[in-house]
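REQUEST ID: PR-0412
SUBMITTED BY: lab tech R.K.
PRIORITY: routine
TASK: structure prediction, single protein chain
INPUT:
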Amino acid sequence: MTPHINAAAGDFAETLLMPGDPLRAKYIADNFLDNARLVTDVRNMLGYTGEYQGRAISLMGSGMGIPSISIYAKELATEYGVKNIIRIGSCGAVSNKIKLMDVVMAMGASTDSAVNRSRFANTDFAMIADFNLLRLAADAADKQGANYHVGNLYSSDLFYCGDETRYDDMEKYGILGVEMEAAGLYGVAAEYGINALAMMTVTDHLRQGLHLSAEERQHTLNEMIKLTLEAVSHLK
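STATUS: complete
OUTPUT:
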């Protein structure tokens, strides 16, 4: 038990999917896992453990932003023995090569946050995904026929940044989309020796002013869940 997680020892599986919204964790547990049970509910940041094709899988919300996901990911790694954390969420695209409802897999995660410089003696540290998780996800996307892209995401500390000119530089440097958590998760994974991957569905296009409807968002969420569960089902 930690100040933020009231699960008992052994309640979490080694592989955990982490949406931002705790109610998404509940939705996935209710609709995609067998024998799912609630294992933590501190601050209503719900966590569940169940089974997918006989494999134990856990779910837990991360909240919004790098500080929030960093707290939960660190405690899951050091106090509960979680080895693989896959963030499943949404992003806003900046590259004009990307369309709404595409999937973005973060091979790397750039950021304006200072947390990883604080972690790494005030120097730059390249935030990267675990290659095995990334390869399994790409294989699952190929099998599913998903439109996906692998590359660099940008984890922003500000949701309302007010400076859209920065998207020009992001696109120039090959940034695919913007979200708020991946770089923090990858920093925790590097520090504590676990495996991490961030997978996003594109729900908005920041350059083109396009947005998915509520129904489309739910559809892309379901497809993302299927893709992710297919990927982790092949973990050794």
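NOTES: The radius of gyration is 17 Å.
REVIEWED BY: pending
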